[in-house]
Every structure is written in C-alpha cells, then in structure tokens.
Amino acid sequence: MIAAVLALAASALEPALERGREMFARGANVTAIVANGGAGVPVSGLACASCHAENGRGRSEAGVDAPDVTWATLAKPYDVTRADGRTRRPYTAPLLIRAVTMGIDSAGNALTPAMPRYQLTIADAKALVAFLQRADAASEPGVSDEAIEVAVIGNAETPGETRLFQRRIAWRRESDRDPLAIVARSEASGLAAIAARAAPALIELDGPPPARFPDEGDAFLLDADGVTRALALLELAQRDGAAVAVDAPEEIVAAVRERAAIAPTSTAIIYAGPLAHAPKASTLYLVDADPAEVLANAARFAGSVVYLARPARRPAAAPLLVEALRAAGRDVTRARLSAEIRRLLEYGEHQRSERAVQILQLDAEKRRFVIVTPWLRR
Ligand code: HEC
Question: What is the rounded distance in angstroms from the CA atom of residue 130 to the CA atom of residue 239?
C-alpha cells in the first residue's frame, strides 16, 4: 500500500522517490492545466491521489472515473480493454510521462479533460514514475521482508522450505490472504477467483483444463497444448497412411489442415472433446482424453484402435516458480514474476519439455495402455 510507503517515507526513500511521493499524495509544487470550459486553467497543488486515491487504485466520484494507475495495472504485458471499450497497450515510463503531461494514453488516445495535464520538469516526471513503480513493488501482496507467500491449490507438490534473498518461500494451502502467485493442479476449485488476486498462476494439469481457466493473462498452463498433441497424433496417422477426419475445436482443425488434407469422413478420426461424445471409428486418435477415464470406459472402445496423446507433466510448477522468483530478483513484483515465467517457458530449457507428448495405445481387452512412441519433443 502507498500508506505503508508513507510511513517509511522520511527515513527510507531516496530523495527522488520522496519527491515522487510528494507529488502523488500532496501535489507538492506541481502545476496542472485543468479544463474549464474551453480554456485551460493552471492549478497548483493538485495531487494525483485526490482523484486516483491514496493507493493509486482509482475511484469513481461525481461522475468522474479515475482509473487504476498502479504500475502493475499500467504495465500489464497485454492489451487491456477498458470498461468503455477503449483498448490500450502496456505503459512504459515514457508513455506514462506522456499521459501525465500531454493527456495521451499508451495507445495514442486522448484522455478526457477530466485528467489534468501536468507541467513537470524532466526530473519531476522521472521521480513520479519511480515512485509509482516502487510504491507498487512495496504493495505486492504476499511479499514481505521475511517471506514470499505462494498459494497451492489441489494436490500440487511443494518443494518444502526454500529460501531466496534472505526470504522464506512459504507454500500455503489455498488461503484467503493475497499470495504473490499460485501453483495449481487441475482440481482447481475457485481457481479463477484466486488467480485474480494472485496472478501469475502456474497450472499443472492432470487432465483436461479446468472449465474456468483464469483469463487474466498471467496464468500459465504447464502442459503440451491441444494443438501440439493433435499434431503428434497426426504424425502417427500419416505414418500409418490413414486419411483422417477431424472432430475438434477450430484451432486444432486449422493446425491439422496446415499439415495434411482432412478427409470429410473417414474411419480414422482425430477427436478432441468429452469422451462420452467420442465418435465411433475404426481408429480413434484422442487429443485430450484423460487416460484413467479411457480405461474406465474401455468396453466402449472394443473393436476400435484407440490412441491417446499424453502430455508431459513437466516442468513441475513449483521448481519453475522458484527459478522465476530467483530471476525476478529481490524486488519481485507480479509483473516481473510473470515476465520471468513467460521467458522461462519461451526460451528456457523448460520449453522443450513443456511440449513433449507421448502416444499410448489402448489395449481394451487387457485394460491397459501400450506405449507407442517415446516422448516426442516438438
Ligand atoms: C482531477 C482528477 C485527476 C487528477 C488530479 C489526476 N488524474 Fe489521472 N486521470 C483522471 C481521469 C478522470 C482519468 C481518465 C481519463 C480518460 O479515461 O480519458 C485519468 C487518467 C490517467 C491515466 C491514464 C490511465 C489509463 O488507463 O490509460 C494516468 C496514467 C493518470 N491518469 C495518471 C495520473 C497521475 C500520475 C496524476 C498526478 C500527477 C493524475 N493522474 C492526476 C483524473 C485525474
């Protein structure tokens, strides 16, 4: 909270941060041009906090909607669509300075005249940005000087006690407190609600994705995705010379079509969907079936050849999270942690394993699976 920073202000903040705080909280020694009919009127001492609230999270008052201007929100690494439909890009420090001085948002839209245009020296502008960034770091729920609290949902394994930068990583069962991040397995009751408070989320899947997968943009599914699995199955079908039909969501159909001709009807079908609706086919390639469920329904598939793509359950969420925390550094924030997780998944050694798929064949009679391919790295 900015209130917490206020308490530290006198002793702990560097001079530039202290100057930023004065501008934000008290409007000290700043002049803003405020719309007054057509003409702009200079007003001094107009604090950001008087509209955007002490904690920067924004408020609605007298018909004026002052948005959340905490750094975590401004710098979110994806497009934000505002309630009024306007979209914008993530803010950077120069874009924030442009918004405050010229009233232009990160996407180049003019802000309404309700947002004053500030006349700031370069040093003051930098101090204001530095303060907003730091205030945010200080307000990260789940992060204290002693511990970083991580919530665990479902049956995810935790690595026991870990220490980073003299802090303890505290692995807690799903808690009411705001943790910095969550590690989840698919049995994720209330996952979306918790992820909203605690993004980024790392999700390891034991089965199909949870119905309410958090859409905050900072949730990471640690699982070979459906397209990757479907393409592994397609390779198998091509090896067997089968012309396949596809009964799956559009993104999978499109990915298959890019690699191969799709037969309008065929006895070999690549299928993604609820097992209960699986079509009858002589060869069935199941993209997202849960092996246990397939075994339980083995009788249903008598007479069919059934393959399924099993995703690698690597990387495990907890070690990945620790690595990302380490990379995010001492002043970890949600935005920084998200960026590090994304980087590890895209460029790190986790990337290959994230996409590994193994293909199993159902032996319906003996009610077991036979491994058809080794782990295929894609
Ligand atoms: C008199 C009220 C008021 C004051 C004072 C004020 N703002 Fe604003 N601010 C607004 C309103 C209202 C908007 C929304 C404008 C719009 O949506 O077009 C806004 C928008 C913004 C935005 C754009 C956010 C986005 O989502 O694109 C930023 C950044 C911002 N303000 C920062 C500041 C800072 C920093 C200060 C202090 C230096 C400040 N504001 C002072 C009312 C105010």
Answer: 58
Q: Which of 298, 262, 259, 305 is nearest to 281 (CA)?
A: 305
Q: How far apart are CA 170 and CA 193, in angstroms?
A: 20
Mutational test site, ligand 1, from 29, 41, 55, 69, max ligand atoms within 8 Å of CB:
69
DSSP 3-state assignment of 310? strand
The ligand 1 atom nearest the CA atom of 106: 27
Using CA atoms, how far apart are residues 355 and 348, in angstroms rounded to an integer? 12
Pick out the chain residues at pLDDT < 50: 1-12, 216, 352-353
What residue spans define the domains of the chain?
Answer: 2-138, 147-223+314-339, 226-311+355-371
What digits encode the pLDDT tens for the residues 22-61? Answer: 999 899 889 998 887 767 888 888 999 889 887 787 777 7
pTM of the model: 0.47
List C-alpha distances in Å: 177 to 129, 149, 150, 180, 296. 28, 9, 10, 10, 39
Q: What is the bridge-based pairing of β-strands 357-363 and 305-311?
A: antiparallel
